[in-house]
Amino acid sequence: MKKSLSSLKIQSLVSELEAREKEQDRILATTREIIRHCSNSIKLMHAGELKEAKTELSHIEKKLSPISKTKVFDYLLEQTYQEVAEAHLLLAAVERKELPGFRELSMPFEPYLLGLCDLVGELRREMLECLKRGKKKDAEYYFDLMNAIYDELVPLRFSNSLLPNFRKKQDVARGQVEQARSELVRAMG
Predict the structure, then answer these.
(1) Whole-prediction pTM value?
(2) Fewer CB near the last or first residue (10 Å), C or N of the chain?
(3) Residue 6: what pLDDT?
């Protein structure tokens, strides 16, 4: 007995896919906005404009909350969470506060760890700015922090299937620490 195509309910699948496509488009547009706010926030932090940086971070929270509840497209949030982690972590470092953990930032630990690796490069940038201004103690603070972060990350040796891109970022962080060490030694000598 042949089934007719109408009995397969294809149209209901089309409706479901159209709804998913609409949600995906909304999430992608929002994640681009969030990443721009993160970038602006980090630039403002490096410029010493913390009030404006915090304003950018407040925009992030408002935009992230509604899309963070997605189950179907949670993988679209990985890069966004990574950038959000990096921005919040840098703010804490610049304000000399304790770095927030992934639970405090309400995000999965995988993108948090990637953001932590990226933070090392931002701390190096702060260190170099301090050296340029002759603030050696501040430069040492940033170097010590980036070195401590790297030391915490070293034991995490898992396959790429468990922590995608982590080992690569871990290696980049190691290079940043090594470069910063030699830059600090030259400046202090």
Answers:
(1) 0.90
(2) N
(3) 60
